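Journal club prep, notes for RB
We'll compare a predicted complex against what the paper describes. Inputs for the 2-acetamido-2-deoxy-beta-D-glucopyranose case:
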Amino acid sequence: MRLDLYASILALPACLRLACAEQYELDDAIYDSGLHGPGTDQEVLGVPCPDYTRYATARHRPYSDGPLELPFQRPHKSCRKFTSPEVEQVIRDLYPRMKDRDLAHIFQNAFPNTLDTTVLWHVDGETTHAGPSKYFRYRDNAEWKGAQSFIVTGDINAEWLRDSTNQLAQYQLLAKTALDISNLIKGAIATQAEFVIENPYCNAFQPPNPSGLDPSNNGQQDIVHPQYEPSNVFECKYELDSLANFLSLGNQYHAATGSTKFLTNRWFLALRTIIAVLQAQSQPTFDADHKFRVNEYLFSRQTTAGTETLNLGGLGNPLGPGTGLIRSAFRPSDDAAIFPFLIPSNAMMSVELNRTASLLRAFTTTTADKADIENLHIYIKILESHSTSIRNGILNHAVVNHPTFGQVLAYETDGYNSHLLMDDANVPSLLSLPLLGFLDKSEALYQNTRAMILSPHGNPYFLSGPAFTGIGGPHIGLRNAWPMSVLIQAMTSDDDNEILSCLERVKNVSVFGLINESVDVRVGVDRRSAQGMTRPWFAWANSVLAQCVLWLAQERPHLVFEGGAVAEKYVVGKGFVGA
Ligand SMILES: *[C@@H]1O[C@H](CO)[C@@H](O)[C@H](O)[C@H]1NC(C)=O
Ligand SMILES: *[C@@H]1O[C@H](CO)[C@@H](O)[C@H](O)[C@H]1NC(C)=O
Ligand SMILES: *[C@@H]1O[C@H](CO)[C@@H](O)[C@H](O)[C@H]1NC(C)=O
């Protein structure tokens, strides 16, 4: 008996070590990608894959051959959630050609991170289909037909509409030629559509019924109107940009592929639902006789953090009439807005509504049905009219004459001439407006606004310290700046020196070879203890790094590749295309 027991302990796979982070550094070989020659791997060991949150808090070999010796952080091949030969090809194309070996290593980790770690459920709708659920969930009327994809945010077991759109953005250009990527994104559009139809005011969602994945609990007891079913919804903060991101996911896919095949009846129902939200949330707080009228969306939480709940019984601060702007109760950081006409989210919505109108115009050419075409034209009119009135609302109500910086855009306003001057790291932000397509980066209004929000005198959340500098926000607090904001700063710059210094700053604090949510500007990041930053597994930030490198490869190849001024450009989906 005892001997048997002893023997079976000996036979236990070495994976016991998987559970203990301290050992990782000693046992790096186990986690090699397999691209680097044979080694003991998880397939051989036949053990479960390590939880990626823990995996990402240790450094795995091989290290980069740059001065920072950054680790390799991709899970073992057999532990990846989704693999795509086309995505591997992009890495094979770029990795050897990048002159900064540390940046190349981060790119190699970050570019596939969404696929490697966050595709928790996917059916392509052709060979695999959504099955029956092990749960019975109240009010789940979704059809779950066709391709579906559930893209988890990272270390929190839920899908955010905003995060998932951004998590997938760096693969969009592959969708035209790669069927697997195309189905993955089409699936993500269809899954988001179900979320929007059922709960258009919510920001984060549980795994869909047929995925068979367990829902999790966010530990709060929020009082929200309209009510929702917690086994379907992870959190229900109404953020205008969540809905803009749903539209953006489809618009990006259309721009990349020219295809309108994702425009299903469910998608149109989601669009109708969004239009209803826009109508409801463009209502002012008082009617023409200054009588209070209740808003459809209310949110209260018991908390000591002012940014986690809405005052005035869940309503938030009052909004004036006639602006054309749309209320957003919360920001893309999931913090409460102070003045709920949140400008970056309105700007993004204006752009995406206009793009959706063009998408529907393209769709009219695919049908000969007169009634359909008429209906499409009605949609197009509504979308364009909202898009225009939001844009005018921003230009008429959010431009402020600043004594130092001149004409700038406010972060928030209320329709009573109150303005909040600041920016937050999370996109949509003021800093990202040119990337969102709202302003050109050469416009004075943008340049003045940019100078303001990248100054500690113009933006209280521009934080700097001996170890790091960037824009943060109230979500993590006054000591933490977010690498994401520094990457957006790079992508909105025309100045090679500014771009390179942004990349240096981000690299310097990415000691685990991935991008953290935020970094303590005083102490930076400790390689041993992993202290000084937040969120080990934040897929969105990794995607922004990948997008930044791909942008450089296409627009400023001399900054990333050898060859100086004649360095070849690289375009995703096309390869190197000459200088
Ligand atoms: C920051 O992210 C890295 C992975 O990139 C992780 O190892 C580290 O633990 C994170 N920091 C915190 C405090 O979560
Ligand atoms: C919508 O897009 C068209 C070009 O496609 C542009 O001319 C127009 O100004 C845009 N409208 C708004 C409100 O952004
Ligand atoms: C990198 O970080 C260290 C401390 O963490 C700091 O001393 C150094 O100045 C930083 N370098 C850059 C380029 O930011």
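Talking point for the session: The pocket of 2-acetamido-2-deoxy-beta-D-glucopyranose (ligand 1) is lined by residues 56-57, 512, 514, 516, 530, 533-536 (CB under 6 Å).
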